[in-house]
Amino acid sequence: MKRRDVLRWTGMASALAVAGCISDDDGTDDTSGEGDGSTPTAEPTSTPEPTSTPEPTSTTESSDDEGTGEEESGGENGASGEFDYTDPVETVKAFVTAWQDGNIETMNFLAAEDGNFGQVQEADVEEVSSQAPTIEEVETVDEGEESASVEALLVLPDAEVPRSGTFELVAVDGEWRIHDLLPTGQKIAPSVNFDPDVDDGTMTLTHTDGDAVPADELFVRGKGLDRTGVWYELSDELGENDDVKAGHSLTIAVENEYTVSVVWDNGEYSATLSSAGGASASESAGESPVENYLADANNYDGTVEDFTGQDSVTIETGVDEPDYAYDPPAIRIDQGTEVTWQWVGGGAHSVTHEDGEFDSEILDSEGAEFSHTFDESGTYLYYCKPHKALGMKGAVVVE
Fold this sequence. Notes:
Nuclear Transport Factor 2, Chain: A, 21 strands, Immunoglobulin-like, 34% strand, 7 helices, alpha+beta, Halocyanin domain-containing protein, five-stranded mixed sheet, flat
């Protein structure tokens, strides 16, 4: 099994840890789509022959021989015959149960071939199952002929409160398969583009296309700006109850060195919609590989901290606020600079370059260190193996 496939499994559940906590009274947010309510009409297909334990089947196709599979996978909670794969909720329950039990056959069978869960091998099952959540509540919020969304209240290992996650499913031969697991709220951020135009010490931010966004949910943040805050207070044309739509813009003064982010925040969820910086022409919204890579990274506000002129730089690894982050997450250095990542918490983390040029492997001791000297210019993107899906990512820009 490829290492990235293992990380998908361990990271999918972990990604929920940074999602917003929802009320136990509520259970879900209003993120239902416009599915037609239909279910797949084809008969459930039989499953592939397993190599060791019986492969899971839908309820209608269970046999006496599957009793052994039930016993090995944990009785009622792990029995393949207890779940109907033509039902989205039942499929999710079967998937999570197999994840908890380390039932490789069921996990691999229910993971969509083109989805974000890789195939699990025997050697990786302990690491994968250690991150498995348990389900408190679950319901289908969107169901069509080809896809479905199931929202669940999930409790992660060692977590004190449940988190809301959305399982994305796809239809395969009349049954459902798990394509992805997302923190609830990740899908509901507006899709919008802002164009920053800088001229003679001023920046004009223009909504060029995409969704309309309430003016009281849109914020301008950054450094080297003469004004920051909620959009309607910075705008001369919009009020608190208006929407920011295509064509709307505002102008603020900027210094030579600046960073700016347009952030959506509705009080429950937030997301950075656009970022730009004045350090280089390439660091404009939608163009910078750093911005693209760190768009969902913890502790990143659009700033690439400048450490040029220094022989060495230290980055804290595993900082507590927010969880699973590097501090600072993005830095700019000269060629020949040595960067040292220092573990400041007790968690298991790594510093792993996307293209394999450096890798600390997973370390879990507070005070542990990993160093790398950057001899060539370029942009180096890296992540933590166990927590990439949580947003534990970083970047080093070498001049």
